[in-house]
Amino acid sequence: MKLFESSEESYAIRLKNEDQSAFRELYNIYGKRLYNFAYRFLKNKEQSEEIVQESFLSLWLNRNKLKEEYPIGPYLFTIGRRLTLNSLRQAATSKESLEKLWGSITYLHNEAEEQILFNDLQEFAATAFNNLPKQQQLVFRLRPGGRPIL
Asked: What is the CATH number of the domain that holds 89?
């Protein structure tokens, strides 16, 4: 039982025989459609073109595994769908990683900045304290209970 027209079958046979004109014909038939499919999800021209290239490269590299009774179009779109999903997954992971990195940098930056400000504040307080008369220094040093403040 044949699942498709004989022209599709001949493409599989021609590809197995390393017929580059069959490959070009398939590219002319499916290239733009595969690009549009990838672009709908990725919204990026370069990534979509890369998906098309990688899909056709995979078709060519795996041409000996093609079965003549199955159409090539769905095979190409399966490859394209897998590559598109991998690209989306990678972009999502990269975005999450970047956000985590920025979050940790901001947190570390704030902690370092706060330490610098605290040290500056302590230095300013010590300078101001040392400029006070001795009696006022004594008052500021002692809290109720006799413990020094600074």
From this structure: 1.10.1740.10
Range of the domain at 36: 6-100
Tell me the pLDDT tens digit for each residue of 83-130: 999 998 888 777 776 777 677 666 555 677 778 878 888 888 888 878
Dihedrals phi, psi of 118, to nearest 5 degrees: -60, -45
For residue 103, give both structure tokens: 């979050």
- Helix (H) / strand (E) element for 6: namely helix 6-16
CA–CA dist 36, 49 (Å, integer):
9
Place of tokens 């580059």: 20
Q: For the full predicted model, state whether its pTM sits above 0.70.
A: no
Q: Does 36 reside within a domain?
A: yes
**DSSP symbol at 148:** B
- Same domain? For 10 and 49 the reply is yes
DSSP 8-state class, residue 1: -
